[in-house]
Each structure stands twice: as structure tokens, then as C-alpha cells.
Specification:
Blueprint lengths: L2 E6 L7 E2 L2 E2 H10 L4 E8 L2 H8 L7 E2 L5 H11 L5 E6 L9
């Protein structure tokens, strides 16, 4: 089974919850999802991606306009060949793998 994660960073700001950054919490959660081959951030500019991941990313989606039609097209194009897609917002701190 091939799985992909899309992480929408548009209109998010890094925050701390109980001393842990939301980005770290989301990345820890994502790493425990079954058979994830790729994590693709979605952002309005490359700086959002760098501030969330604290590093360069090879695969990402940049949307100049926060439009649903552009987002859906980008998701469809990037998820071709994958069995399941997970989609999260970059400020979603209360994810539970169970």
C-alpha cells in the first residue's frame, strides 16, 4: 500500500503546546502513519515550508492564491499512484494515532 501526506501550511503560524512545537508533534504523528512514502507541504511561499520543517524540502506545492480549485488540482496531480492520501493543516496539534 502506498500512502502520501499533504500538510497545508497556508495561513498557519508556529505555536507551542506543552513546550513542544506543533510542527514537531505533527511530524511525529505523520511518521507513525502506515506506509507513508511522501510528505508534501502546501504553502504560499518557500519560507513557510522552511519555518515549519527547519530544512529544505524536495517535494512541495506552492499556491500563490489560496483557491480550492488550485488546491484540488495539485492534490490530484501529486497523489497519482498512491492508495491513500492523508491531509492535515499545519496547526493541527491534537492528532492521535490511536
Amino acid at each position: 500500500m502506498r500512502n502520501i501526506v499533504f500538510l497545508n501550511l497556508i495561513n498557519t503560524t508556529p505555536v507551542l503546546i506543552s513546550g513542544e512545537s506543533v510542527s514537531r508533534s505533527i511530524l511525529d504523528f505523520t511518521s507513525r502513519l502506515p506506509e507513508v512514502e511522501k510528505i508534501i507541504p502546501i504553502a504560499s511561499d518557500i519560507e513557510q515550508i522552511k519555518s515549519f520543517f527547519h530544512r529544505e524540502m524536495d517535494d512541495f506545492i506552492l499556491l500563490e492564491d489560496n483557491r480550492q480549485d488550485l488546491l484540488l488540482k495539485a492534490l490530484a496531480d501529486s497523489s497519482s499512484g498512491f492508495n491513500h492520501c492523508f491531509y492535515y493543516y499545519g496547526d493541527t496539534p491534537l492528532l492521535d494515532i490511536e
